[in-house]
Amino acid sequence: MTSSFTIHDAAGYEQLMGRWSQKLAPMFIDFAGLADGEKILDVGCGTGSLTFALARTAELGEIAAIDYSPVFVEETIRRNTDPRIKVRQADACALPFDDGTFDRALALLVLHFVPEASKAVAEMRRVVRPGGIVAAAVWDHLGGMPGMRMMVDTVAALSDAGRQLRARYCFQPMMQPGEMKRTFVEQGLVNVTETQLMIRMDYQNFDDYWTPIGAGEGPLGKYVATLDAAERVRTEAAVRDAYEAGQPDGRRSFANVAWACRGIVP
């Protein structure tokens, strides 16, 4: 099962999203819970934002981290110095672990990029022991990411292709209120709760915002990469205008909301 998230370069991902997932990870861990000695699975580890936060938070027995992207797997392995952490390439919809292996399975900013997200939830439930926890968080692209909506609404005003991007971006899996909670219940998890987590994305200037997108990283970067040279210039200029909003270029701060859900394996 492929992921719909496009990644070319680990450093580009860090500038695009990794630095923000690092801010979100401690809040997500507080919501998901954690206890010393547990075996934890990080599904879709990316460059290790959640993986390494888990290692810092508790005296865990083992942390298994998987990702579909070899770029992410290679980078997380390169960064890792903790013998408790084991990283491997794997599919969230076909986890390479026996039933009931883990105390918790966590997925931070992953499920909305998995086309069959419910299957990934079912796999997370399968590999967690009875009484253990499955938890996930996804961005609210429709109503909770104004910095990214700024771009998708801008390109939607420029072309039909931009409108198609907006339709895809705003309605990815698990993003609508209650959608992830319903999926958790449908997959047999109990005592399911859903909440919202909020961080701020603070940019130094427009280049800080635009550079990874212009380099083709992530879903917005993937769209930019399809444009011809003239359309790329036009798009960058229009997004810059939206970012600056009539003021000199410089710092901007956007509040960003993620939906978070947790349930217990019966």
> Looking at CATH, which topology would you report?
Rossmann fold
Helix content: 40-55%
Query: Which CATH top level class fits?
Result: Alpha Beta
Morphology call:
globular
Tally the helices: 10
What share of the residues does DSSP label as strand, in percent?
15-25%
End-to-end distance, in Å? 27 Å
Counting copies of identical and different chains, the oligomeric state is single chain
How many E strands? Answer: 7
Q: How many strands, which pairing sense, and closed or not: the largest β-sheet?
A: 7 strands, mixed
Q: How big is the Rg?
A: 18 Å
Overall average residue pLDDT = 95
Give the second-level CATH assignment, the architecture.
3-Layer(aba) Sandwich
Determine the CATH superfamily.
Answer: Vaccinia Virus protein VP39
Biggest sheet, spatial arrangement of strands: 3-2-1-4-5-7-6
Give the SSE string: HEHEHEEHEHHHEHHHE
Output the structural class.
alpha/beta
Low-confidence stretches: none
Organism: Rhizobium sullae (Rhizobium hedysari)
Pfam family, one: Methyltransf_11
Protein name: Class I SAM-dependent methyltransferase
Keywords: Methyltransferase, Transferase
Protein described:
With 266 residues, the chain is α/β, with parallel strands linked by helices. The protein has one domain: Vaccinia Virus protein VP39 (Rossmann fold, 3-Layer(aba) Sandwich), CATH 3.40.50. Helix content is 44%, strand content 23%. Strands 3-2-1-4-5-7-6 form a 7-stranded mixed beta sheet. Helix 2 links the parallel strand 1 and strand 2. Helix 1 crosses helix 2, helix 1 crosses helix 8 and helix 5 runs antiparallel to helix 6. The longest helix is centred in the N-terminal third of the chain and has 23 residues. The radius of gyration is 18 Å and the shape is globular. The mean pLDDT is 95.
